[in-house]
Design goal:
Length: 285
């Protein structure tokens, strides 16, 4: 299929058919390929007889595929080839974030007026990546400002939840503001991403437990119906969170039961299982 796609879009610049190919049709065909074949297909798309916007779309997708394959240098070079400034900058920030190049990201993009970018469909992700960079360098004030923008502007519910959880982390760890941290985490409950909500509930419960509000911490965990949590890693984390609070309440036997349930989950990550088993051993009389 890759050869067919390349033929259709006339990589050589010579028209191969009487009618120019439809970008959406050829893009859909490229998207159905395995990652290793899709990457050169999207690069070829960017050299085809298409508009600047369509070429930018193809290069963005190619850069993302290179990033998924951990071809970081290629991902960055593809991002730089995008002629639409906002998209090029956003994709470059994506690559730098993936490489944890936080200081370089701030140096290069700290003065960017992301609100003014057009098209704006990547603005939320750009605010997220800059916010993560500020958080990594310990700048809580700028981190929460950008993460707030990310949550408010993104069209992606997963990015919104991730931004809100990281905003909570920044308030909690960098600015030492538990009240605002809890508010940010709880805002994640309004998203449709279960895993982001699970992480937020555990974080709120940890804060309440640290404040010795143990009954409130358990009540927070109960807002998640464990019977509906199928992912072993998250189910284990939630059970362990119950266990941690029960230990603080002096209910050691109940805590051990929670850790045992967590350790016995099918398909649980080996490191999680080992951690829970160690806790059980430490708590056992």
């Amino acid at each position: 299929m890759l050869k067919t796609i390349i033929g259709l879009i006339c990589v050589s610049g010579v028209c191969c058919a009487a009618v120019e190919p439809n970008y959406l049709d050829v893009r859909a065909a490229a998207a159905r390929l395995k990652s290793e074949e899709a990457l050169p297909a999207f690069i070829a798309l960017a050299d085809g007889p298409f508009s600047d916007a369509q070429k930018a779309d193809a290069l963005e997708r190619a850069s993302t595929l290179a990033l998924e394959q951990k071809q970081y240098d290629q991902a960055l070079e593809l991002a730089k080839k995008i002629t639409v400034p906002a998209i090029s900058k956003a994709v470059r920030m994506r690559v730098m974030s993936a490489r944890r190049e936080w200081e370089a990201l701030i140096v290069q993009f700290k003065d960017e007026n992301i609100d003014a970018w057009w098209p704006d469909y990547l603005n939320g992700e750009a605010f997220l990546n800059r916010g993560l960079a500020y958080a990594a360098r310990g700048d809580g004030t700028n981190a929460v400002a950008d993460l707030r923008k990310a949550a408010d502007t993104t069209r992606n519910d997963s990015i919104r939840g991730f931004a809100l959880n990281n905003m909570g982390n920044a308030y909690r760890g960098l600015l030492k503001d538990d009240a605002r941290a809890i508010a940010a985490y709880r805002e994640t409950y309004l998203t449709k991403n279960d895993y982001k909500r699970f992480a937020a509930v555990i974080a709120v419960a940890e804060i309440l437990a640290r404040q010795n509000k143990l009954d409130e911490a358990l009540a927070e965990l109960r807002t998640i119906d464990l019977d509906k949590v199928g992912h072993p890693g998250w189910r284990g984390s939630l059970l362990a969170a119950y266990g941690d609070i029960l230990v603080k309440q002096g209910r050691k036997a109940e805590a051990i039961a929670k850790y045992r349930e967590a350790a016995g989950l099918k398909d649980l990550d080996a490191s999680q299982k080992a951690a829970y088993e160690k806790t059980i051993k430490d708590l056992a009389p």
